[in-house]
Specification:
The protein is 42% helix and 0% strand. The chain is globular. It has 76 residues and is mainly α. The chain has a single domain, classed as 3-Layer(aba) Sandwich (Rossmann fold), CATH 3.40.50.
Length: 76
């Protein structure tokens, strides 16, 4: 979770992420983790700037050969 997505406001003083959206995101991540666990896998969840968190995870794991990601489409 990138804190920059949840702090501050966007247009007209509205929060970037309101309480209902945040609850939905947290419940979705929890459900995904539980589903993966039932299948013998896991989900790594971290809070921080992705450029820092991903670098730290790669360092911790040590044997990473590839990293894939996507960028969120930004509104104009």
């Amino acid at each position: 979770f990138d804190p920059r997505h949840y702090l501050g406001t966007r247009c007209y003083g509205f929060p970037k992420t309101g309480p209902h959206r945040l609850r939905f995101l947290l419940e979705s991540v929890k459900d995904l983790r539980e589903t993966l666990k039932k299948k013998g896998s896991t989900l790594v969840v971290r809070k921080g700037k992705p450029e820092d968190v991903v670098c730290d995870l790669i360092t911790q794991l040590g044997s990473v050969s590839a990293v894939a990601f996507h960028e969120e489409v930004r509104e104009i």
